[in-house]
Write a structure and sequence with these properties.
The complex is a heterodimer of chains A (205) and B (171). Helices cover 65% and strands 0% of the residues of chain A. Chain A has eight helices and no strands. The longest helix of chain B has 25 residues. The chains are: A mainly alpha (205), B mainly alpha (171).
Chain lengths: 205, 171
């Protein structure tokens, strides 16, 4: 039984190697940097995500708004000169609304999201490990129930982006959007919960 | 090395990583981080893709994110041990103790339940904080903006209803 599990696990690497979205080492590297940035800025902590829900810590929205605003401007430049491509997700309205409601509630209680969870486990958080096991069962349930859930996930309104609604003004829309988000990041009050158990100090800008 | 970086440094680094991952030098793909969970469930329980339609749909995306999150785990472990020096086994977060309760059973119960709901929600929505926020909203995708808006609202409402008011001491 363990052999089979190992085989399925190794198959994961074969799939990635054959996929053409970066070598296995490249994908591991991207993940490593992702984990390192999140751990270094401490946004994998309960105090940062649930703390935002309680308005005790604003690190997450500040960092998120800045990252998205900055990335959006350069991403459109990259796409324009052929260095990147669009990978827009469709608007499956039913699934998007129901899923987002459930996700927001769970994020406030758990104090994690699927990306920060494993990084939090890596710093020794047992409660997050238990939540991750809950997540695995959630994934199992979804896989099993997919044929019944599929009908409520639609209707599909397609892969739309905001600039598409402003023909001829796409560049301006991207620029305004990017700069507005960066401005919002600076305007959000700089509130930080310093965890006494980590002997935390505020980071210098 | 600094034990902690600011939201600005963190945000800038994250933006550069998003751009690199999207670019043809990186993975020519967005960052995503919730498809790996049902994928890992499939690996652990040996779900047959012949039998489960969803396993077939997520085979590629799930594997990519599985490897990426393995890297993220290692990155988190490396940083918490050598740089931020915050690695230690713990069960109750400080703020949970302050605003919810001091019961280990309660925290583990809510962790399990919210972990379960979170993945069901993410898979219904077709993405999570990484796929819809970081990658979706960076492309100014309408799907990402709808997800982002609703999550922000339900997050804040839940925070208000689920936890005690600031300063209220628990006994």
């Amino acid at each position: 039984m363990f052999d089979e599990l190992l085989q399925r696990f190794m198959h994961m690497f074969e799939v990635v190697a054959a996929e053409g979205h970066g070598s296995v080492w490249m994908v591991l590297f991207i993940g490593f940097v992702f984990g390192a940035i999140i751990q270094w800025s401490r946004v994998d902590k309960f105090e940062k995500i649930a703390g935002f829900a309680m308005l005790e810590d604003m690190t997450v929205p500040k960092m998120l708004f800045f990252a998205i605003g900055f990335a959006s401007i350069f991403l459109y430049v990259f796409i324009e000169i052929g260095l990147a491509h669009y990978h827009v997700k469709p608007i499956m309205l039913g699934g998007l609304v129901i899923g987002a409601i459930l996700f927001g509630v769970a994020m406030a209680i758990f104090g994690k999201c699927p990306g920060t969870g494993p990084i939090s486990v890596a710093e020794g958080r047992i409660d997050v490990l238990v939540g991750a096991i809950g997540g695995i069962f959630g994934g199992l349930f979804f896989t099993w129930a997919y044929p019944w859930l599929k009908p409520i996930m639609g209707p599909d309104y397609g892969k739309l982006t905001l600039p598409q609604f402003f023909e001829g003004q796409e560049h301006l829309v991207v620029l305004i959007y990017g700069l507005a988000l960066i401005a919002v990041a600076f305007v959000i009050p700089d509130i930080e919960y310093l965890d006494p158990e980590d002997h935390e100090k505020k980071a210098e800008l | 090395m600094a034990r902690k970086i600011s939201w600005l440094t963190g945000g800038l680094m994250m933006a550069l990583l998003i751009l690199f991952t999207f670019s043809i030098w990186g993975a020519d793909r967005p960052i995503g981080a919730s498809t790996y969970v049902p994928y890992f469930a499939g690996l652990l329980f040996g779900l047959d893709p012949e039998q489960y339609e969803y396993m077939r749909e997520i085979e590629k995306a799930g594997a990519w994110e599985g490897v990426m999150l393995l890297g993220a785990f290692l990155g988190g472990l490396f940083m918490s041990v050598f740089v931020t020096k915050t690695f230690r086994f713990s069960v109750l977060p400080s703020l949970w103790k302050e605003r919810k309760n001091r019961s280990v059973a309660s925290r583990l119960f809510w962790s399990f339940v919210s972990g379960f709901i979170m993945i069901v929600g993410a898979r219904l929505a077709g993405g999570c904080t990484s796929g819809h926020f970081l990658s979706g909203a960076s492309q100014i995708a309408v799907s990402g903006l709808i997800f982002g808006g609703i999550v922000m609202v339900t997050l804040l409402v839940t925070g208000r209803l689920f936890y005690k008011k600031r300063g209220a001491q628990d006994v």
